[in-house]
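Appendix B. Raw example, untouched.
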Amino acid sequence: MSSKHASPRGLVIAAFAAIYLIWGSTYLGIGLAVQSMPPHIMAAIRFTISGIALYGVMRLRGNAAPKLVHWRSAAIIGIFLLGLGNGSVSWAETMVPTGLAALLVAIVPLWMVLLEWLRPHGIKPRASVFVGIALGLLGMLLLIGPSALGLDRPLNPLGIAILISATLCWAIGSIYSRHTPLPESPLLLTGMEMLMGGAFLFGMSFVLGEWQGFEFAHVTTVSWLALAYLILIGAFLGFSAYVFLLQVSTPAKVSTYAYVNPVVAVVLGWAVNGESITPITLIASAIIIAGVAIITYFNTRPQRERQAFTPPQTEQPPHLMLDESKAARH
């Protein structure tokens, strides 16, 4: 990693563009991948391949073998973030539009603030943060109305419930990651979390009966290409750009992807998938993003010496967007 003073301005701008566009596009990638592939099977393959590659590369580069307590932490974080977080987003995208999924995932900061406050010895948020919470909830209520996306039928309530549960699980895993032993290398930790999350997702795919009648021969070329994009671009390139930015910029600035990604996802859903954008969608989007921006701005704190890196909830918004002590998600 280059230091802040040695990094060319153009490279920093390119890295910001990468996390804005790549992580915003992963919602569409998931939507295309699950068109012909069961969501938990797809997510399990994605994170298992990414985890094996990333963990292997980091070990070959000389990173020390993780301790058993590190694997325990990675398992809990991976299950909540990737299994119950990202995996549930993939599941929900079989029921709701990708743009709606991205916007609802933007409520993660709301859970983060509340959980951080309610946990033992938690930190009470500033009064201004409650304004962000109220705006986010208002935007969510507007967004999940039957006509929010111009649909000719009410939105799937199960898909909405799964998405909201996914955001809560992501926040729980994020809070836990702040108070548990972690290996020194953030990328090694990410590979471990992907391996643990992938194993959990494979288990979920069996429990939910996704393998019954499923054949890889029936997966379309579009879904395979989308999965390859999620692995190669969404994971490796996106995460590399993110880790680079954590070295050359402040976490508060890097976390701005949290409210840029939903906008990118909505635009791509409209341009590629033909998803409708109505005035209500635009108003709700603006309200949610404003709420997230307020929470992020007023809830940053000094950076800890060691930062934990965890992948974003489809990319995400990762769990570290609220705290300069975090070095986080498609």
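End of appendix B.
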